[in-house]
Amino acid sequence: MIIAFSVTPLGVGEAVAEPVARAVKVVRDSGLPNRTDAMFTTIEGDWDEVMDVVKRAVEAVSEVAPRVSLVLKADVRQGVTDGMTSKVESLEQHLAQHDG
Length: 100
Prior knowledge:
Blueprint: E1 2-10, H1 17-29, E2 34-36, E3 41-44, H2 47-62, E4 67-75, H3 83-99
Antiparallel strand pairs: 1-3, 1-4, 2-3
Helix pairs in contact: 1-2
């Protein structure tokens, strides 16, 4: 499965980079395929391991924030591996066909 999620610390003011960095560190230390952009962190693995990482990421932010907001979107698809890469590659192939 692939999960895109965003963890937002509440009650810490406008500067949220340090608390969010705690969540991203948990994800990167997990060893699962992941990618972080300006809005979401995407992680790929099986249900239990991915959900465990999300839980630990929220807990890491909770250590420095009195309240945490979590937004999560999941693509649950059996038998697919490397979906984070293959989905983007497929999109790029279609875009290339329309450029010519």
